[in-house]
Amino acid sequence: MTGAAVPREQGSPDAAPLVRLTDVGKSYGSVIALRGVSLEADAGEVTCVLGDNGAGKSTLIKIIAGLHRHDSGTYEVQGEEVAFASPRDALTRGIATVYQDLAVVPLMPVWRNFFLGSEKRKSFGRMDIDFMRRTTHSELAEMGIDLRDVDQPIGTLSGGERQCVAIARAVHFGARALILDEPTAALGVKQAGVVLRYIVQARERGLAVVFITHNPHHAYPVGDRFLILNRGRSLGYHTKEEITREELTALMAGGAELEQLAHELDAAASGGAVAKELAREAKDLGVADS
Ligand SMILES: Nc1ncnc2c1ncn2[C@@H]1O[C@H](COP(=O)(O)OP(=O)(O)OP(=O)(O)O)[C@@H](O)[C@H]1O
Ligand SMILES: [Mg+2]
C-alpha cells in the first residue's frame, strides 16, 4: 500500500515504460498539490488515476501533458528523462491529452473539428475537404463510431460521442499515450459506457492510456493499474490482481472517514435519520463493520 513502482512483466527486461513518473512533487506557492507520486503507463495498458476533488489528479496530468513542470522527482518517456516546456513538446513525443472541456467549435462540422489546427491542404493551399470528410468517417468507423453524417455540427453530438471523436482524433494524429481527464464525469450511465468502450479500443490499438476519474466503477472494469490520490499523496498504487473493486471503492470513497462520521452522528442523534442514511451508505460501500 505504498507508492512504490509495480514490478513489470515484459518480454525484454530493460524495456522502459512509455511514461514513468517517479516521486514527483509539485507546489503552487505554498500549496503542495502533489508529493512523492509515482506511476507508469505503457503500451496496451490503462492506468487509472482516482481521487477526490483537490486530490491532485489534474496537476498530475498537467505535468504529463507538458502544461506544468514538476518541481521534484523525475519524468521519463521510454526511459529518457524529459522536461517539457509545453504541451506541443509532449505531443511530439506522442503524448496527447483530452481535457474534459474539449476545445471544440460547436457549430463547425465534425470533420472540421477533427482536423482543427491540422487541416489537410491541397498543393495550391485550398483545404482538401473530401479527404478530411472521408478520413474522419473512416477513423471514427475504425473505433466503432458510426456517425450518420460527419457534416453535422459537433455541438449536436452527445458528450460521450464528442469524447470519442477527441480520442479518435488523438489516435489518428499519432498519439502513443492518451491522457483523459475525467472523460466520463459529466455523462450518464449509457454514455459513460460508450466512452469506456473507446478506452478499451485505444488500449487494444496499443496505446498507453491514463484515465482520470472519480468513479471506481468506471475505472475498475477497464484499468490495469490504479493510482489512488488523496490530498496530493499516493494512497496506493496497485495492479488489478492486487485489488478488488470493493477495496478500490472503499479507498476512493474515503470509506474510513465516512464510517467515522456515521458513528459520530449516530452517537449525537442516537439513531437519527441522517446517521442511518450515512451508516447505510457506509455499509453499501462495504466499509461498515456490521
Ligand atoms: N494553478 C494553481 N494555483 C494554485 N493552486 C492550485 C493550482 N492548481 C491546483 N491547485 C491546488 O492544488 C491542489 C490539487 O488540485 P488539482 O486540480 O490537481 O486536483 P484534482 O484532483 O484535479 O481535483 P478535481 O477533482 O476537483 O478536479 C488543490 O488544493 C488545488 O487548489
Ligand atoms: Mg481536476
TrEMBL record:
Pfam family, one: ABC_tran
SMART domains registered for this protein in UniProt: AAA
Keyword ATP-binding listed: yes
UniProt superkingdom: Bacteria
Name used for this protein in its record: ATP-binding cassette domain-containing protein
InterPro entries (alphabetical): AAA+_ATPase, ABC_carbohydrate_import_ATPase, ABC_transporter-like_ATP-bd, ABC_transporter-like_CS, P-loop_NTPase
Keyword Lyase: no
Domain ABC transporter: 19-256
Keywords (A to Z) from UniProt: ATP-binding, Nucleotide-binding
MF GO annotations: ATP binding
